[in-house]
Amino acid sequence: MTNTELTATVAPPRVPGPASPYQGDIARYWDGEARPVNLRLGDVDGLYHHHYGIGEVDHSALGDTEDSVGEKKLIAELHRLESAQAEFLLGHLGGIGRDDTLVDAGCGRGGSMVMAHQRFGCKVEGVTLSAKQADFANHRARELRIQDHVRARVCNMLAMPFGTGSAAASWNNESSMYVDLNDLFAEHSRVLEVGGRYVTITGCWNPRYGQPSKWVSQINAHFECNIHSRREYLRAMADNRLVPQAVIDLTPDTLPYWELRATSSLVTGIEDAFINSYRDGSFQYLLIAADRV
Ligand SMILES: C[S@@+](CC[C@H](N)C(=O)[O-])C[C@H]1O[C@@H](n2cnc3c(N)ncnc32)[C@H](O)[C@@H]1O
Ligand SMILES: CC(C)=CCC/C(C)=C/COP(=O)(O)OP(=O)(O)O
Ligand SMILES: [Mg+2]
């Protein structure tokens, strides 16, 4: 036997690596992420989110002291607004039955997946580039004894391990700014059944402003992402058999979350970029729900 034949015989199965050096960087970013603003909010009730909040602040729920009691109340309120955001997204998935399968593209630590299962009783499959996040989400699913219904995998959302037409609905919750939108919507369109629903909540730059503002560039640099414009979303959907059923500007609904977060001890330094860009109109927080036709 030659050396080449020997190597071929004993070579271990190939584990696919990241599809690009950029995806490798993003996987490392989320593997290393442990910001208190995310972990302490998740600790409130075990739903761990990596997205932002919507809705009015309930000032009666906030303490009037800046001690640990006041901080605990503020954290619970920020978390309530983040969970309200996920409920709003799930509310646009349409009529989902217990036998359906949902796909969370860019699932993070899995908070939205758990909420989706609790709401619909169905299967929820998630993909993330980060092995740490997938482990975290699967650990939470086991703790909740829903591991038969909620599962996260380490996988590129542009090539998901799900059959054609296998999902009743799919979504991106603040995860579409890491990929090319044409590639992304082509993949959702493949995975969704005809008549299925796609929903995204995303931050996008506003073509009415002209080009990405300095605040948008700051957010891109902060998260190593590439925020798309509203126009790009609608064009890429139209090109991939996704027909918008609702386009909702959530910008006024997310500003209270940011204004409250800016007063907390858990600030990360990106708060002003969000507040300024939402206020000057250069950036928008949007929900887009689309029918797969
Ligand atoms: C801001 S987090 C959002 C997490 C989650 N959707 C949530 O609402 O909590 C962005 C997520 O997108 C994922 N992501 C980015 N690019 C991806 C890709 N090409 N394939 C799969 N996941 C990706 C990251 O791994 C991360 O989990
Ligand atoms: C709306 C936009 C542009 C989102 C970019 C994607 C992103 C990083 C979302 C929040 O993640 P996180 O919850 O980990 O961030 P933070 O630590 O700031 O709470
Ligand atoms: Mg967060």
From TrEMBL:
Its EC number is 2.1.1.255. The keyword Methyltransferase applies. Keywords: Methyltransferase, Transferase. GO terms for biological process: methylation. Transmembrane segments: none annotated. Residues 103-199 form the Methyltransferase type domain. It is an enzyme of class 2 (transferase). GO terms for molecular function: methyltransferase activity. Signal peptide: none annotated. It comes from the Bacteria. SUPFAM superfamilies: S-adenosyl-L-methionine-dependent methyltransferases. PANTHER family: GERANYL DIPHOSPHATE 2-C-METHYLTRANSFERASE, ZGC:194242. This is Geranyl diphosphate 2-C-methyltransferase.
